[in-house]
Design a protein that fits this description.
- The chain is mainly alpha-helical.
- The chain has one domain.
- Helix content is about 65%, strand content about 0%.
- It is built from 8 helices and no strands.
- Helix 4 (about 45-65) packs antiparallel against helix 5 (about 75-105) and helix 5 (about 75-105) packs across helix 7.
- It is elongated, with a radius of gyration of 21 Å.
């Protein structure tokens, strides 16, 4: 429902309850679980991020000949965190995109389209989303918004580095 409310044109946005009722009337109760499969798969994203962070940290500390118990500098944490989050996002991004598209509702004017074009706007599963995107935009179509997502991660990490990490050494 969250994605449907966010992606709906302002003139078509409904309240939480209104969106809930609309989904049930159009798709039945099972429509409330559209996007659940990709969401469950996306729970692996933090695990990938953590695993990549620890692996990169281990490689870095070994390469520099440092004791793993001494830790990293703030800048090293920033860059390793950004890199590991980027790698995890690259791996899971097709499912992020599929989840949003499964929960998206085409705008009202689409009922004027012919049946084939209307069907191309409807998605039935994560696999269906990925197949339609690859058919229309090629394999790189899956990742066309990824750069914006990665830049937002770097901006967020830079924010933390600027405003949070300076206080790490102050508090024991």
């Amino acid at each position: 429902m969250h994605d449907r409310q966010q992606t709906a044109p302002k003139s078509e946005r409904l309240s939480f309850i209104g969106t809930w009722k609309q989904i049930i009337s159009e798709q039945g109760y099972t429509g409330l679980w559209n996007g659940l499969q990709p969401s469950l798969i996306l729970t692996v994203n933090p695990a990938i991020t953590y695993g990549m962070f620890e692996r990169i940290k281990s490689i870095l500390l070994t390469k520099k000949g440092r004791n793993p118990n001494l830790g990293l500098t703030s800048w090293e944490v920033f860059f390793i965190g950004a890199l590991s989050k980027t790698l995890a996002t690259i791996v899971t991004y097709p499912y992020i995109m599929a989840k949003v598209r499964l929960q998206w509702k085409p705008p009202k004017g689409t009922n004027l389209l012919n049946q084939k074009d209307q069907e191309s706007l409807r998605y039935h599963s994560a696999t269906d989303v990925l197949q339609k995107v690859i058919r229309s935009d090629g394999i790189f179509g899956i990742y066309k918004v990824l750069l914006i997502v990665v830049i937002s991660y770097f901006v967020l990490l830079l924010y933390y580095l600027t405003f949070f990490f300076p206080f790490i050494d102050v508090f024991p």
